[in-house]
């Protein structure tokens, strides 16, 4: 044994006893069967069987990093959130990027929205902004989300993603036309997580100290510049380096090249909402910048890699319902559904104490609840009373709601989202198409046609419905797409 070896700590079992032999199972004689008294063998095999937790039902594949958010503008006229209270104020953050449809081991360089889930560890609790790299989404009502995701994931019979299912659903859900146009354009495959924007996507509420409220949309503009992959490049990269995005992020931070984003908000006074030309709570629509110009409010820098991917990325949890005083939800029906769905997923996927793990718990304050116990409870509350009201000096409510009440009207019912003066499912898809350069239009048509052409030969009706939505967005868009699809289907 060398001196170096002598300095090394002893390997132990989970209960801390020294391990005598980590190479050979104990057997009954030389060459005989294994003995039940070899508990090291059982401990290792049993733990190994339990190493995985259920992967996220969407956004399973991802990478994360810690960082810092710095306020660069005075926004106290709009929100009383403490972490936004002063120019120069800094807040620790954790950001998890992801793709949506692929399983945990899927390739990064695919055409899919990217998740942009950001946790601000504020002094008033954690604020989670769980967004994407796209300002809009495919649907506008949470009740459609499980169906939508089923079409993106594996078919119950074939076990693969099927063009029939994807285009059937999108064709029958015309509100998806805007997001689909976005996704099949150049930004549909970012070159890396560093080279894309992030968006809160939904409209959220800000409330100032005086109790006035505003509607806001968040934009995170990459300071690295937008860079995308063409479909062919992405196909090659997905095969050669499935972890391309994850590796790029980690290596950039290791090199000290900390990626940054300029944070902007669009702010709508509450009184504007009812008469605005688009329903401001419709997730399939943007607010054109001419209507509500983005205002710069801060900068986000990612500067520290997690040490342990399982503990800090796989077990990280983000919930759109994690608000802080001065920030709240809007009546967007998608957002309302998400307020329930995430914490429920966390309880299933990570467990009832998920919020107490180091990556998830507040870092700039502490959680003071009467919630207790459950699997893997760490006993942090000691002897403290676990009920309220109590007369033992336990924590008490503030009496001040985090956000403003909003007026409601009418009867309960399964109402469609209200339609404003210029709302339809196609208008903003058409505007986006016409904003694309001729070259981008050509790539968009080729990308869409390549996928639509894969629909089964005997389901021309699915193809027709899909193309019709794009035709309604813009006649030229529809005509070119129809021709391209027809050409490709002839060659099949
Ligand atoms: C009603 C619609 C939606 C529902 C029900 C829903 C539900 C979920 C669920 C259950 C998860 C997995 C959470 C976990 O296991 O930790 C998830 C992840 C995620 N969702 Fe959604 N989602 C919806 C729409 C959206 C929208 C519109 C966006 C973006 C604007 C979005 C962004 C994300 C992101 C970024 C993640 C990954 C979070 C992480 O990194 O842990 N989702 N979603």
TrEMBL record:
Protein name according to UniProt: Catalase
Domain of life: Bacteria
Record SUPFAM superfamilies: Heme-dependent catalase-like (SSF56634)
Transmembrane segments: none
UniProt-listed CDD domains: catalase_clade_3 (cd08156)
Keywords recorded for this protein, A-Z: Heme, Hydrogen peroxide, Iron, Metal-binding, Oxidoreductase, Peroxidase
Catalytic residues of the enzyme: 59, 132
Annotated Catalase core domain residues: 12-396
